[in-house]
Amino acid sequence: MSDGFVSVQPEVSGGSSSQIAPQHAPGGVDWKAWGTVVSLGIVWWLLWQILEPLANWASFQLLGLTPGSRLGDAVAFFLYDVPKILLLLAGMIFLVSTVRTFFSVERTRQLLGGKREGVGNVLSALLGVVTPFCSCSAVPLFIGFVESGIPLGVTFSFLIATPMVNEIALVMLFGLFGWQIAALYMVTGLLVAILAGVAIGRIPNVEKGVEDFVWKIAVGRDAHSDESMTWRERFLSAWAMTKEIVGKVWLYVIVGIAVGAGIHGYVPEDALAGILGKSAWWSVPAGVILGIPMYSNAAGIIPVVHALMEKGAALGTVLAFMMSVVALSLPEMIILRRVLKPRLIAIFVAIVGVGIIFTGYLFNLVL
Predict the structure, then answer these.
(1) DSSP of 181-243, one letter per residue?
(2) Which of 18, 102, 216, 326 is spaced 20 to 30 A from 257 at the CA atom?
């Protein structure tokens, strides 16, 4: 390991200690380090603000595509989502990695893992609800959880809950369908995340389903979770982690978004409504299967859910479709493939899929 932050060691001899003493002084602030991070944060925010208009300009002005056309919408979706997701990944990894420097592996295990697996699953699922990231953005957090020594089952509860249930989706469901539907959606989404995480965590030798490089990251970073680190060391550590993880997953992100962009532009809404609107017993599994190749977050798919409902689709079937889109999307599986082996991905899809299908039937039965 040759990252810059790894070589920073506490000074114990008298030779050059005066050069680093201010960084270690109690209560001292490294203004240069903070100034750099704040400046980069402002640049990040400015880039975030211009992404959508820049993508539209490139699609419809520079490339001359027609707004509202299938190809135009697909290209604009791709040009907007690629930098958006990569910016989210980089910013999120940096923040999480900085916070991570304050926690040893053992402390993190005590907070979310510990001896009571069920409590850890509940806490991580609840954390996922208040974490406003899409499924693709949850992958680096998955790596961070594994790095911290949190059990895989607990980690999967977070990975499922993050895209499936979020505050934006809850507010939109409340506005469109009322508080009862929003509450049922939140409760069932949490139950799927918690129970699926518990089930995955109890599979024998489940750790073998994680790619080897993830465990190597965990080993390599363990020694650098130290509360005595300076802010400069924490920022350098987080920057090194950001470069390492983004460097390993960026291609998968682009491929996943490309698949989603094609589907976004070319999947006909009327065809979906025709299938999801049927009352046949197979409509719920069909909705889940149809949702897997799609790509969207919960907030983005809810307007489609509303449109499908207006065309006669059953609520449980449509909600199962929505959960499948946000929790089992093909782009997410492509990105997850970077950190998980095919067998564990298949287990993940099967367990979550069964939970979603049960939820769909439950909604159709109750409502």
Answers:
(1) HHHHHHHHHHHHHHHHHHHHHTSTTGGGGB-HHHHHHHHHHHTT--TT--HHHHHHHHHHHHH
(2) 216
